[in-house]
Every structure is written in structure tokens, then in C-alpha cells.
Amino acid sequence: MAGPLDGVRVLDLTSVVLGPLATQTLGDMGANIIKIEGPAGDTTRYTGPSRSEDMSALFMGLNRNKRSIVLDLKKEEAKEILWRLIDEADVFLHSIRPQAIERLGFGYSTVLDRNVRIIYAGVHGFRIDGPYSGRPAYDDVIQGLSGSADLMARLVGEPRYMPTIMADKTCGLVTVNAILAALYERERSGKGQFAEIPMLETMVAFNMADHIFGHAFQPPEGPMGYSRVLAPSRRPYKTRDGYICLLAYTDSQWERFWAEVGEPNLKDDPRFNNLSSRADNIEVVYSLSAKFISTRTTAEWLEVLSRLEIPCGEIIELESLPDDPHLQAINFFRTEHHPTEGAITIPDIPIQFDRTPGAINRLQPKLGEHTNEILLEAGYDFVEIDSLRASGAIN
Hints:
There is one protein chain. The chain is α/β, with parallel strands linked by helices. It has 17 helices and eleven strands. 40% of the residues lie in helices and 13% in strands. The strands form three sheets. A six-stranded parallel beta sheet has the order 3-2-1-4-5-6, sandwiched between helices. Strands 7-8-9 form a three-stranded antiparallel beta sheet, covered by helices on one side.
């Protein structure tokens, strides 16, 4: 069965993590992704363990369900190829700085003039109408500028980056949302449009959804920073033999928890008897809970909390995730045989559709693997392709 985006043709002029994650997600949903790379290829092709020079671990995690074509956009012949591809495309996605894409001749107004139905999505570090427009940006920089590193400082005493490429991955998923919304609107209007996805503004909005807190009001009713998630004691609880994660949240969940630990009267304690008072006294709540939880084993608490219907879970190390019984039961980690890389592991597509399920139809492409195939689809013949290759416009 075809995925929900079957028939949608996406030109992907992005690299590193943000854009490739977005287009991989669209490809998982059935879109036809054409990954346009320069002669050296996406830099992630060379990041992390590898079996081949240009097929590293990081690249493998971000580039399934795509075809690769190499175009040297410094050459006019390559630009003409891109224009032909634009004529038949639904989405044009790039992560090139605004001024640079304009110099190449593929700014949004020019592309939309050529194809009035195309969705032109620009992933930028900063919105183009602000003074930071055109500044280079990567995940670490955006974590610092958006307040993310400051949130870590509030917990550990000095600024730190989140131990994941959080800004890139978050903005990648927001990019998917933007493209899908624009495609939906096009079904009604028949017109394409420019969608800008700026990293800084996206991450500031992401962080401020909860951390604007007291500054949601003017004048402020309290400081910025969601007190519960910034509490120093908010961490996995230590049990007698390990750790456990749990979050009693509602009044009834806390009432059942206090009764289980032999302190039923705590439900009437004014510090704990409602959501607001618990938030005001969250350090006391966490410290008191930790004292009780330390008296039993992880297995005992998992059984008890399940019975009490309080959300909980043990700590799973990254290496143990493939052995998780739930993930095993749904075959979430799949072993595939890549034609050049051999046996590889692929996480499944997390989103499920019952009528139009997504699928992993293509494994990660070698650099320029589909250049001939894509050019033939665009109307070039083999003589023209050989000439383009001789000119250096393609690989």
C-alpha cells in the first residue's frame, strides 16, 4: 500500500541533521525524496563508524527512503538540471543561508515564479526579517542562544548542552509540520508558498511553552522557569537495587501513593493536597518521595506502581533498548541487508496509519547513486548525461 504522501515529490537540498531528518520522515510517509548533494556529499556521510568511506553511522540514521543525485551548482549545466527538477516538484527544501541561496539564483520568489504550486521551505538559523539573518548556526549555537544551555546551568551549575542534537531534531520535526500544513493549504488554494523554519525562533518557542511560567502575565506573577522540571531533586529515584522513574501527578495518584507508603494523612497536608501546593513545595515532595522509594527494590516498585496506576518505568540503557520486550514485540528494531553496507539496524517508523501505512522502501543511498535514474526521469538521454558528467556538472 502507498503511504499518505505517495506522489509528493520533494527536492532536498539540506545536509547534516535537521533537514535530512525532516525529509526522511516525509519519505517514511511515502514522499519521493530526491537528495541533492554537492560533489563532496552530505558531511554526515563521514561522521561516526562506517564500513564504507561515505556511509557513516550518522548518515545511515538520517537518510533512508531517498535517492541521491550529485549536482555541482557552481556550474550552469547543474543549475539547469535543478530547474528541470523544480518544474516537476511539490516541495523544495533547503538549509542554505538566505543570502547564499539568492546568489545561486534559487531564492524563494524566483523558484515560486517558475513553479507556482511548489512549497518552498527554507530552514534558516534565524528569521530573515531580523538582524541575525544570515548568521551561520548549528545545534550547539542554537542551544546556547535559545536558553537551552541556561536551563542546564540551573540544574548543574554551569551551562551545558543537552546530550542529544536537540535543536536540529526538534526543528526537523517542526519542518515536517510546516511542509504538511503548506501542502494541505495548497489543496484548497492551488498555490504554493514560502515557509520559513528558523531554528532560533523555533527553539525559543519550544522552551518558552513551559518556561515562560510567571512571565506569561504582565506584570509577571513569578520568575521564568517551570519550577517542577527545574527542581534539583527531579531525577530518577534511587531504589534499593537501582533506579526507577515515576510521576504521580493527580491528587488521586498522590493519595494512593501516600497510602501505600503508610502515610495516608499526607493527602491532607496543605503542602501536598492539590496540584498548585505541590508545585510550590516540589522540592519537599520529591525529597520525601525519594526517602520512601529507597526502601524497596525496582521490581517491587514496578509491581506496586502498576497496581496503583501511577505512571512508572525502569531506567533502560541505550544498549538495552533493542531487548525491551515491548519494542521486541512490535519489531521496532529491524535488521535489513544493505547492498553495500551489509547487515544494518533500522528503527521502525514510529507513526502508524491504518489505511496508508508508511514503509521503508529504500535503504540509504550511496553518493550520487541515482543520478542517471533521476536525470532520465527528467527527460535527459544517455548522450546528454555523458556530456554533463564530462563537464563536471554531475558525478
